């Protein structure tokens, strides 16, 4: 089973760190998103089903992330960016797609 590369783990870890500094009202992330961030940050093995869920979330949320970035926001003032980072950030989508293709061969 694949393990997220360092550049994805660092994004997830950063999102968790930023989230901790914010009041509850400004913290993003569902229990599933937080579990994913911890898996990525800790270097856990990721199953095919987890990778498929990652891809699904990242595709679904990509536009919200991009719109927030275009407005000059970051993880400290945008729940959309914070949540996207919990799932590994923009580069995680390409990586997840590559891993899914390898595992489905």
What distance separates the N and C termini? 14 Å
How many helices? The count is 5
What summary fits the major beta sheet?
none
Estimate what percentage of residues fall within beta strands.
under 5%
Number of strands: 0
- Please tell me the overall pLDDT: 96
Instruction: Classify the helix fraction into a percent range.
Output: 55-70%
Number of domains: 1
**Rg from alpha-carbon coordinates:** 13 Å
From the helix content, strand content and strand pairing, which structural class follows?
A: mainly alpha
Order of helices and strands: HHHHH
Described by the principal axes of the CA atoms, the overall outline is globular
Q: Would you identify the regions where 5 or more consecutive residues have pLDDT less than 50?
A: none
Structure in a nutshell:
By secondary structure, this protein is mainly alpha-helical. The protein is built from five helices and no strands.
Could you characterize the architecture of this molecule?
Helix 1 (6-21) crosses helix 2 (31-42), helix 1 packs across helix 4 and helix 3 (48-70) runs antiparallel to helix 5 (90-103). This protein has helices at 6-21, 31-42, 48-70, 79-86, 90-103. It has five helices and no strands. With 105 residues, it is mostly helical. The protein is 70% helix and 0% strand. It has one domain (6-103).
Pick out its properties.
single chain, 105 residues, mainly alpha, 5 helices
């Amino acid at each position: 089973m694949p393990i997220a590369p360092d550049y994805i783990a660092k994004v997830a870890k950063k999102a968790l760190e930023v989230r901790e500094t914010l009041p509850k009202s400004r913290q993003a992330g569902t229990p599933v998103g937080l579990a994913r961030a911890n898996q990525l940050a800790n270097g856990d093995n990721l199953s095919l089903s987890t990778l498929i869920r990652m891809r699904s979330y990242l595709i679904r949320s990509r536009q919200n992330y991009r719109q927030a970035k275009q407005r000059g926001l970051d993880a400290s003032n945008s729940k959309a960016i914070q949540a996207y980072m919990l799932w590994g950030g923009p580069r995680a989508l390409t990586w997840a797609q590559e891993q899914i293709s390898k595992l489905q061969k």
